[in-house]
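Repro:
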Amino acid sequence: MNPIVSVALPVYNGERFLFEAVSSVFAQSLSDFELIIVDDGSTDRTPAIVSRFAQSDARVRVIRNDTNKGIIPSLNSGIETARAPFIARMDADDRMHPERLAEQVAFLEKNTDIDVVSCLVEKFSETGIREGYSAYMQWLNSLCTHEDMRREMFVESPIAHPSVMTRTDTIRCAGGYQDHGWPEDYDLWLRLLRSGVRFGKVRKVLHYWRDRQDRLSRVDDRYSLINFHRCKAHYLAGLIKKNSGKVVIWGAKRKSRQFSSLLKPYGIEFAAYVDVDRKIIGTHRDGIPVIAPEGLRDYSGYPVICYVSADGARRKIRDFLVQAGYTESVDFFMLT
């Protein structure tokens, strides 16, 4: 008989924290799971640790890559092998709350219209959490409904990757994880949101996310700022071209123009820049007029792309546009 949930845990040279991570899976109140450990060609003591787990518990299934293939092939191996109707992600250096699997399975069984569920997460680190990450965690944990996550989808990844549980059929039908040279998890979320898949969150801290200086998102170029921006531009351009192909960019300064340049290869044209700086309103940037917010009335029908870093500024711009009759994720999009 197949288990109710498959836990996919890829690992590469994870001897330092692997025992702690797997122990938190074994401590789950829901015991009807299989743990698929994908050893991605580890050269430390990881293979021996994994073997001991497999020998001691029949729920552990091991996939060993002969060479280090990377996170995307390893994750897809776990998805292909999974026997359960639900797949939960887990990292080899994190910890699960004992109720995580039970809570997320119950959520998906109750909410049949939702295919992806996360939870609130808590960062921890032996060296302390930096202020920027504390702000990100506060923002991340504030997004609890599908509407919240869809609204903020181009700001940052609206869910923490290792905290996620999905319906197995959903992730397989989406083609699993894909390699485009940008973050594989963010790419998957944007693909799923684009296809109409609904997201949810259990409003409890059920995952403990370790922050390390050598974690993959810090050292792999795939997770660099420019590649996040490339990913955003790719999916945003697809939405824009369905409707107009021409947009207004809110923000005429250097960073917003740099991002907008990533849209040009997709054939997106720019009608105007919006800015509140009176010194540049009425001028041109790259041959494109810079207008005040009130000037948007002359550009009705064009989607507005708002590239703004500060959360407070995003809220003010959002309020302005909504009052002006714009609909978020249709007529305007917020980015950072």
